[in-house]
Amino acid sequence: MTHRWLVTGGLGFIGSAFVRNVLRERPAIAVTVLDAMTYAGNPANVEEVAGDPRYRFVRGDIADAAAVEEAIGDGVDAIVNFAAETHVDRSILDPEAFIRTDVMGTHVLLEAVRRRGIPRFLQVSTDEVYGHVAEGASRERDPIRPRSPYAASKAGGDLQVLAYHTTYGTPVLITRGSNTYGPYQYPEKLIPLFVTNLIDGEQVPVYGDGLQVRDWLHVDDHARGIAHVLEHGVPGEVYNLGGGNSRTNLEITRRLLELTGRSYETSVRHVADREGHDRRYALDASKARALGWTPAVPFETGLAETAAWYRSREAWWRPIKSGDFRSYYQRQYAHR
Ligand code: DAU
Q1: 181: CA distance to ligand 1 center in Å?
Q2: Residue with CA at minimum distance from ligand 1 atom 11
């Protein structure tokens, strides 16, 4: 019997990796993607599976109840919510869209789950909800202390999800992933922005001293972790998905310089720091590991393959970088 999963935000970076992996590895699962096709939702991300008869696409916004209803159609066995505004810098420039999608959108989905009696709802969240972690690693029961408009909007989503479980017994799960990298990542984020700038011989803007720490997770490991938690997680629980690859931004930058054959002196520009910049994130992922998930991609290999992917897939990112992205880049970096 085929099960159908509704994947919201399935044209985005992590959502599309999830869709590709599920259709490739789970023959008994069909997928409906609901995606608003904002700037980061790109049909090219699912090109290789779009012809699969198990794939269905609905264009729409998760904050629009009618679009959610249309996507659910006769019913689905699970909803996995990837749809979100995700970029911290954009949330600092313009927070409103984050509230609409990450807070209101999550609310609309939860109401649909409740009304339609959908058996599973998984909220894709982030380690950013824990805020800056001076030492040690965040565990799922730690207090959440979001510090950017983006992180606060995701925390607002998480709190609603948990409250629905307590109040209505809604069968929810939350995953909190660490910084994710790999193919098809929109080039506003650190790794794809730096790789593509370096390929073009442009400078890369390192915020502040570059000694901020992030924990890196390959997108395929992240996608598999979400599918694993969906299938094996305990309703009402949160699962951290951390890569276990803590690096400073400068370490990442130096590696990318090596991979693209550029030098620090000519290519790196230290610029004004991000406002309210979280210095360090770190996740304790032992709960997800005890559930049977293990990240498989070694960071060095994953990073080199990612750089090679951007080199060989200029046809994917050049149209993005020459479009609306240009005005965002100006707005974000010109004054720094
Ligand atoms: O930790 C998970 C989060 O990772 C996700 O929830 C977010 O959706 C995702 O955007 C990412 O957030 P970050 O703010 O950590 O990612 P970003 O790629 O924007 O930045 C990574 C680090 O690199 C951060 O310390 C800021 C720094 N940075 C970033 C950019 C874009 C720079 O130094 N220069 C830059 O131009």
Answers
A1: 11
A2: 179
